[in-house]
Every structure is written in structure tokens, then in C-alpha cells.
């Protein structure tokens, strides 16, 4: 089911990316095409305008009323005309009849079908003649007062052959379409790659979440089952006194305490996931803060026949969230007590290292093997689950510790303690960047 959802999501991302790419390519293609076509026609249109002003000024028409193609001499007379060889002019009388067919020679047969549309005076148009010749045209109305009697009061259709431009355009369009097609195909691969890339963290956190929920359910089920069994047992013995069932009641009670601790831890981790925790960073005098925090634990240690010692701490201050660091120490000291034998000593110390400070909890207990050192910070990970059950562990403590340290932009590592046991070394910046909510490269 989850795979189906993920695949649907990935497909949606792919389609979105692909549509995005397609829109960009089409827009780019259209813009390039339009710009290229305009650039092509600009010089032709310019030539037509030059020709028009030349005609209206009576320029070359005083000598030669019609400019015809393929006559180099005309270029000189046309003066400013840019492409005179390619220029043909049709002269229409008021009735729309071509009056310069003699000068057009053999081309008249092809051009005679062109009709006069007086409404197009002053307008630029593209026309096709004889099914294959393309011209850009400009229609000019010559005033009656024009010095050249041959054209005075007539209509001139100045035509510029644009077949080379057309050919270049179609070549360019072909190249453009092929290029766009290739890039369009590439964009499919790109879209697949991008959708995969986007999905990767989603899939990762999805997997982590599923695993977390599965583990949490599993952890919750055990104490609940025990409590339920004990209560059902009590119901079968309605006449018993509490004293008779004290052991079962005590077990149910301790399991419910375990359940409470578990739900608290789960809640802390859920908050760490959603980044909703309100932190309260404040400048703290570390020595007195540690002294104050450790005190109650020394009594607990003593009651277990162990010793908890706070090594002398130099005078320094650091910015930290006292509640969270208290929780961190609680986890580390609790573990040190859980995993070390009677008569052993747990030492807590703090020192300044450059612009950071370290909090070290060292015990003389069972220690953590090299292989396990990274994994013990994973959620629900326990080196020896049967032992942890006895000690009441749920494998969440160090994940929470890791999250707290991350929130402070620090790091936590475990080392071997000499001659045996382990050392949990927490390194924290003196002044963490407050308010950023910590970096979560690795979720606790
Ligand atoms: P738990 O609640 O089981 O202690 P933690 O996340 O706090 O869960 O610790 C994970 C595991 O790391 C523990 O199950 C234990 O195996 C190991 N561990 C933690 N602290 C110590 C320690 N001080 N000495 C030896 N092993 C430890």
C-alpha cells in the first residue's frame, strides 16, 4: 500500500517536472523562432521602405520607371536600395491593371495573377506567386503630382523576393525542431531523475516513520499484555486479599510505569520529528548547574551501592537549554547506573576545549563494543534486549540524547573507559546558534 502511494507520488512529480520542461522548451522554441523570423524579414522590410522613398522622390523613375530583377545597373540608380536585384515593381493603374508588363518580360506570366488591393496601401505583406516564389510586398500610392508621369497617380507594388530567407527559415525550423525534440526526450530522463531525487528523502523518512511506528507499537504491546494478563488473573481470584496477589499487582504496576516512561519518550521523539519544541537557551554557569543537577542522582546511586562523583569543574559559562541538558544528563547517568555493577564509580566531568565544552559521563560498567558504538544511538536499538528489559530500558534514551545534542549543534560519541566501562562524551558549542532548532542530519 505504502509503495503504491509512493509510486503515485513519484509519478505525479515526474509528470509535473515533465510538463514544466515541456512548457519551457515550447516557449523557448517559439521565442527563438519568432525572433529569427523577424530578424530575417527586418532587412527585407528595410529594403522595401528604402525603395518606396526612392520611388516617391521620383529618384530612379525619371530614367527607368521600373526596376527589374537581374539588372545590376539598376542598383546604382536605385541608390539606397539594399537588394535591388531581388526587387520587382508592379505598376497598377486605378483600375487594377498592370501597366508595366513590357518591362517585366517573361516574368509577367507569373506575376499577372497578382491583384491590386487598394486597402493595403502602406502595408507590408508576404505573398506567394506561381506556387513557389515568395515575396515580401509593400504597396505604394504615388501622388498625381509626382514628377514621373509614368507612375504619377498609379499604385506601385514593390516586391522583394524572400526565397533565400524562406529556405534559411525552413532549415532553421528543422534544426530547431530536431534540437527541441532531442532536448524534450532528454527532459524525460531529467524528469525521472529529478522525481527520484525529490522522492529519496521522502521515502527515507517514510521508511523511518513506518519503522518507528512499528517498533513503538511492539514496545507498547508488551507491557500492555502483561498488565492485561495480571488484571485478568486477579479477576479469577475475587476472594483473594491484596497481600495474596501483591506480586502480580507489583508487576502490573511496574509495567504501567514502564509504559508511562515509554510514552513520554515517544512523545519527546515525536516532538523532535515535528520540530515543534520550544527551546529556551540561556547563558548558564556550568559548574553550579551541574552541581545542582547531579545532586539527586548521587543519592540514587548510593541506594544502589554505587558512587556518583562530579569532578571539579572550572569556572565557565555556556549557552544551553537547561531543561534539555538536564534530560540529557538524566539519560546518561541513568544508563551509567543501569549498566554498571554494584560498588563501581560513575564520574561526571566537564571541561572547555577551545570554543566548545565537553560533558563526560564515565562508568566502570559493561562497556559498549566498537561495533555497537554507532548503533546505540538508533531508535529502539538495544545491545542486549533481555538485559534492557530487566533494567527497564526501551532503547529510546540515547536517541533522545542524540536529538538534544543536535539541537545544541553539538555531537555525542561513546568511547571505552579505562580499565573498563564506557565514556559518553558530549561536545557542545559555548554559544550555539540559538533559535534555529538545531540541525538534524540524523534524526534521533
Ligand atoms: P535503554 O533504554 O535500553 O538503555 P538507550 O537508548 O539509552 O536505551 O541505550 C541503548 C543501548 O546502549 C542500551 O540498550 C545499552 O545496550 C547500551 N548502553 C547505553 N548506555 C550504556 C552504558 N553506560 N554502558 C553500556 N551500555 C550502554
From TrEMBL:
Main location class: membrane
GO MF terms held by the record: kinase activity
Keyword Kinase attributed: yes
Pfam families: HATPase_c, HisKA
Keywords: Kinase, Membrane, Phosphoprotein, Transferase, Transmembrane, Transmembrane helix, Two-component regulatory system
TM segment ranges: 14-36, 175-194
PROSITE patterns hit by this protein: HIS_KIN (PS50109)
Domain Histidine kinase: 215-432
Cited SUPFAM superfamilies: ATPase domain of HSP90 chaperone/DNA topoisomerase II/histidine kinase (SSF55874), Homodimeric domain of signal transducing histidine kinase (SSF47384)
Taxonomic superkingdom: Bacteria
InterPro entries, alphabetized: BphY/WalK/GraS-like, HATPase_C_sf, HATPase_dom, His_kinase_dom, HisK_dim/P_dom, HisK_dim/P_sf, Sig_transdc_His_kin-like_C
The protein's Enzyme Commission number: 2.7.13.3
Catalytic reactions of this protein: ATP + protein L-histidine = ADP + protein N-phospho-L-histidine
Keyword Transmembrane helix: yes
Places the protein is found: Membrane
The name this protein goes by in its record: histidine kinase
Origin organism lineage: Bacteria, Bacillati, Bacillota, Bacilli, Lactobacillales
